[in-house]
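I had to read the description of the data format several times before I understood it. For illustration, here is how one protein appears when written out as sequence plus structure tokens:
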Amino acid sequence: MGLPLSSFAPERTETEKEIHRLVRRLAAHGLLEWCLGGARDRQPDVIIEPQIPDYWPRVAPVRASDVLVLSRFAYLRRRGNDLVLESPRAGALFRFHNRKLANAVALLAAPRRMRELRRQDDFPNNELCGLLLDCQILFKIEPERVDALRAAEGDSNLVLWDFHDLLFHARSMEGRHANPQGGLYSHAGLIPPLPAVRPRWPGKKVDLRKLAAAQSRPISPKLLRDRHSTRIFDDERPIAIAELARVLDATARVQSKWSSNDTGVVVEYAARSYPSGGASYPLELYLGVSKCEGLAPGFYHYDAGSHSLVAISVPPQQLEALLRGAQFAMGAPGQPQVLITIAARFGRVAWKYSAIAYALILKDAGVLMQTLYLAATEMGLGGCAIGTANIDLFAKMTRIEIHIEGPVGQFALGRAGKVGNP
């Protein structure tokens, strides 16, 4: 039946201390769930499922005078036969078996004072409210700010996020959820795979092959056709810092700067060699270096304005986790020599664009990945695009909140050991 959370503190005996250490280790690997309410002979009212490895339930203090409201990023949904309350900002989700309790929480769609909630028959008790506050599913507001909930919930960077954008970012990357992810072939045996080439539409066909061959100055396809993904790198001959500098210069260096008066506000622009929605250029490159001749192993930010690398101090185990994660994502036998994490300053795009901000950022990331591929191919280097990254690990390494700046993809770069898969 488990142990009550209160049994872990204070630790009175060596046995209790040992149990505490064991439970902490289990929690760090996401092997524990936490139960609220319910008698021993029936289901708990609520089960808390950790979504990040280091989640530990904490009950934030709640006073009778506090005004509480649901986060605009929180949502209730059906998962199988369960009703689940979650948020992309939360370290855990809440699985409700007591539907009346879920209804009571739903009443907090509008701000309510705690003393008012306590008068209700299905009051979500102090403990549950405190746990939801700690997970940022609920938040406190000052009474005078009830008409400005979006601004009251967090800093100005959070104001810029639409609900669906933050949800997609957190759920499509690693680090802020416990869902299966990657090439799992989840639907194999249920539906057949789609063909590689779409079946042709009926109707008259215009053959372009003869026309392309007859052109006097055809577009050279060699660089595009030679492009391929390399997952095995030659660690006996690692990439050199001069080659890395050439790749960064060709793909990400600031080429020009200008300002424009947009709706009465002066906005700065700094163009790179790839296209960007609205010339926003929100992408930043962070380099995890394992092997690079002339450059010490470590974690660096590429300053695109001055064409320089700035070292960022991180614990060795975090750099190792970053490189190992990329190795696993590629299914490679070894780590990349240089791992480029493509991060986005989300507010750079969201300040202007509504509803499509995150989609534009992903499009930018895609064209930057192709630009990196072409530069690597031109120089005889190997590269491999990686469509995921651990946003929680990146936040720990940079000490930047996930909603301010975070990864939207990665690119492994180095000296190719042998030709990889296309």
